[in-house]
Amino acid sequence: MDIKKLYLSLLLLISVIAFGTLGYHYFEDMTFFDSFYQTIITITTVGFSEIKPLSIEGRTITIFIIVTGIGTVTYSLGQLVGILVEGELGKFFGRKKLAKQIADLKDHFIVCGFGRIGKIICDELQADNIDFVIIEEDLSVAEELERKEILFIPMNATSDEALIEAGIMKARGLVTAVSSDADNVFITLTAKGFRPDIFILARSSDEKNESKLIRAGASHVVSPYLIGGRRMAQVLKRPTVVDFIDIATMGNKMGLMMEEATVGRTSGLIGQTIIESNLRQNYGVIIVAIKKQHGEMVFNPMPSEKLEQGDVIVVIGKKDEMLRMQSIL
Predict the structure, then answer these.
(1) Is the model's pTM score more than 0.70?
(2) For residue 187, what are the contacts with CB-CB under 8 A and spacing of at least 6?
């Protein structure tokens, strides 16, 4: 529905009312209020009698008001009702469609909070086509989320209903990035109550609260201010190292990236050494580290290091080669 058409119809209606009011006042010697009243009962065709017998000029004005006014009123009401109906129906069906899309999600991430940190997280997930849903109670951000075609739930993330609607029972993990550390602790406890095995990444505004979030069940805690400060210091002390990390982890013109991949139970690489796997020769990737299934981290592994089921290898290489490598793992 075009809002400009509504404005135009209202302008025409006001013009008809003004014409009738001024016409009756000057040609029939009515007061402004009586002129306005006579115009309104003529436009609305309520059937009330005329305030006073009209002259030829007055009847001409009445005919003009009837012909133009009734059509203008009908058109204006049609535009107004159309906007209201379309708006409400659009919101209703939009929410129904959104709820269905969220219900169909599986192995996705739940992001609690769409502030500065949450927004960056969502941008990164969206760039890699990773499914996620936002829980954000601030309705002022709804328009931005809809424009970016991001699935969201307009509820408080600390409520059980919000986490259930977000599909916590089928989710891969949860990120709690609201501004309040207390709320982050509460969300973590609630999520762990539903899914004791779920991975939870929690934001901590105060470094002192990291231990509380860990005790609440967070798998990993990040303090943005602490990390930001350390990164700025590293830029001052080791700018080349920081540049390399950026190239490896944040995308660049060279097309390089750092990625992790798990050796699956059906992989043909199980039991092979790194040199036997020919990962570097076949895919041009550099193995930086291997996280063994029992948690040990092997940095810069030797060529004789054996790959086992469940090992997570951290590699650097081109994105298209990474995708090819994933198929054999």
Answers:
(1) no
(2) 112, 157, 158, 163, 174, 176, 178
Domains identified in the chain and CATH numbers = 3-100 (1.10.287.70), 105-227 (3.40.50.720), 254-328 (3.30.70.1450)
Rounded CA Rg of the chain: 33
Q: How many alpha carbons lie under 13 Å from residue 69 in its C-beta half-sphere?
A: 22
Specify whether the CB–CB gap between 263 and 297 falls below 8 A: no
What would the pLDDT profile of 16-70 be if each residue is shown by its tens digit? 889 888 988 888 888 888 888 888 888 877 767 777 888 888 888 888 888 887 7
**Could you give the strand order of the β-sheet that contains 256-262, starting from the edge strand earlier in sequence?**
256-262, 312-318, 286-291, 297-299
Tell me the pLDDT tens digit for each residue of 231-280. Answer: 889 889 888 888 777 776 665 556 677 888 888 888 888 888 888 888 88
Tokens read off for 185: 């602790």
